[in-house]
Design goal:
The chain is mainly alpha-helical. It has 3 domains: 130 residues, no CATH class; 60 residues, Helicase, Ruva Protein, domain 3, CATH 1.10.8.960; 64 residues. Helices cover 48% and strands 5% of the residues.
Length: 350
Amino acid sequence: MRDPLVIFEGSIEVNDAETVEHFENIQSTNWQTCRWKPPPPRLGPNDPHIGWRVEFRSMEVQITDFENAAFTVFVVLVTRVILAFDLNLYIPLSKVDENMRRAHKCNAVLTQRFFVRKHMAPPQGCEVPEGPGGDGPGYSPCAALPTPHSPLDGNVFEEMTLSEILEGKGHYFPGLIPLVLAYLDHIGCDRETRKVVENYLELIKLRGRGDLPTAAQWIRRFVDEHPEYQHDSVITQGVAFDLLQKVKDISLGQQPCPELLGKAEIDPICAQGAYDIPLASSKIEGSVRCQLIKRYVQRARDRTVSLTAAVAKADDITMPDLMSMTMLRSASVSVAHSETLGEDFIFNEL
């Protein structure tokens, strides 16, 4: 436990029965990957009732928006899976601290194992399996689940690689990614949304396996291979500049990086069109106006030619096609007259 880092004036002597100021001051300086948030006090009878909450705070900012979206969506879906399937992921807090210590090691995603609860489902309706993962014939996966009156012993959890946590281990631990896919099936996720989510899950799965590097691995590799780096843990200005320039180009979609993102492609991001364009009321110059109108009328003429050619090959023209041809022919006539009558005729005719 550490002393609170911030204390606001007037929040030292408070009534703990009415406010959670003291608890939050201590809690906010000691949580690791998750934060347990008690309900805020209701100051009036009409205030909304907010229950107990758990915040997931294990994310780090990635290089691209695609990666940030992938991890954000995955974490949110895992929370839905826990609630919908009524999963039990409790392990001793000492094991959580040990997991955090191991996660801080270099290349922990590939070299470390983490404590995870072996059997997450509640004990109702469990079958008795045999084979790998069990403790012999007749072993029940729910036997490791503690009852409200039994202690939480070492048989409840085991050490797994990150890939096993994500994709499953044996027949007794399904893995988080398969559970997310099962949840999408359960809610009837539409095809387009599922395709996007599966691309996110594929990135996470490949990084868990080591087929794709994490952002930290990719940065270390870039520095290690840079010609200015002398392998002395000193990052020169040239190395730092080139790294930031590379990250900028990748994040803006200006340079593909399959060694980091796999098959994912980042659409170019630019300032043009990023903000709303106001409806201007200033008049357009005559020559600019004429060229602009002629350009769009020419499109109408080309469309007319295409439809006419299509009619010549097919007898089953529809009424919408016929109406479109009529309107486009009128536009073509207008542009033909414009060559002699000038731009004012074009503007008025259209």
